[in-house]
Design goal:
The chain has about 325 residues and is mainly α. Helices cover about 50% and strands about 10% of the residues.
Length: about 325
């Protein structure tokens, strides 16, 4: 049953009690609005359709962001990136309730942010926001009265993937300077070019995961958290056999940021332009196709799950396909 009472501040408070449902209440500026809402809620309760939106109306985005940071982000490999983006999102949406977060506000954030950062950055920001809202709805079972506001938001176009390959002479210059730099870096670069492994996968590799008998290296700490066995070419095996055994048991006992810093210094000395460490993965993947491996064979080596993304490495020519067709 619904009761409507006038509050000291002049608003009208509706309180509805019905067996089988928690007590719900809401304040309105006009009595007619209060009466209309009460009738609607009571009718939904009678038909068994009522879902309380109280939690969405009282829980702030700040609280939701904090819960996501505490409960979900630490389980993700991209935890640091997620925390950084949530810090940015908090400044814009933290003061709002979940019910108050509308698609229009998100679109304004998108458009304003595009004036200062690249579209891919905005895509990643909104991707985190989407996952936070899914967490609220699926895990916390918070009902959003108007549905997920992200469903009406169009993301900026996805950036075209880099297709930087080593140009003639660049590999020789790169390896020459890397050898002068010393340490594990030249070996890591050569291993990356032979296997297409990611930086994090290589520096997490342990000697116990290397089998020279089977010519494979088992990668456990992968991007998608799925174990992957990488076949070792004779050149890749030669790289590993020449390495000293470190007390930690790791094949490349380096930090990820140290690898990036060292590679940047090496590139600067070579005079090579616009080359990043991750481009070595692209180069290695393309070389696998050039050796005649199939799409699925390359995928099993590199760990690409999105075959559509992997296709851009093939660089197939129509005349070559015509020869295969006969």
């Amino acid at each position: 049953m619904a009761t409507i009472s006038k509050t000291p501040d002049g608003t009208y408070r509706v309180k509805i009690r019905k067996q089988g449902y928690p007590t719900v209440s809401r304040n309105f500026n006009k009595k007619t609005l209060a009466q209309r809402w009460a009738l609607q809620v009571e009718a939904e309760m009678v038909r068994g359709l009522f879902i309380s939106t109280t939690e969405a109306e009282t829980t702030t985005m700040m609280v939701l962001f904090d819960r996501y940071c505490d409960e979900v982000a630490p389980t993700k490999k991209s935890c640091e990136d997620i925390l950084y983006r949530i810090k940015q999102l908090k400044r814009h949406f933290g003061h709002l309730t979940l019910a108050g977060l509308t698609s229009l506000l998100i679109k304004k954030y998108r458009d304003d942010r595009l004036n200062t950062v690249k579209p891919e950055t905005v895509r990643k920001d909104l991707g985190v926001l989407r996952r936070v809202l899914v967490f609220a709805q699926k895990e916390l079972e918070i009902h959003l009265p108007k549905g997920d506001p992200m469903r009406l938001v169009v993301l900026p176009p996805k950036a075209k993937g880099r297709e930087r390959r080593l140009l003639p002479g660049e590999e020789q210059r790169l390896m020459s300077v890397a050898k002068d730099y010393g340490g594990y870096i030249p070996h890591l670069i050569r291993f990356a070019l032979e296997t297409g492994a990611r930086r994090g996968e290589m520096i997490a590799l342990r000697w116990e995961d290397v089998s020279f008998k089977k010519c494979i290296a088992t990668l456990h700490d992968t991007k998608n958290s799925e174990k992957r066995e990488v076949p070792l070419s004779s050149a890749a095996a030669d790289v590993l056999q020449k390495l000293p055994r470190h007390i930690t048991g790791r094949v490349f006992p380096l930090r990820a940021d140290s690898v990036t810093q060292a590679f940047t210094r090496i590139i600067r000395k070579t005079g090579i332009k616009n080359l990043r460490f991750h481009d070595l993965r692209h180069e290695a993947t393309t070389r696998l196709f050039e050796r005649g491996l199939s799409l699925m064979e390359v995928s099993s080596i590199t760990g690409h799950k999105d075959l559509a993304m992997l296709k851009r490495y093939t660089h197939l020519k129509a005349e070559d396909l015509a020869k295969k067709l006969g």
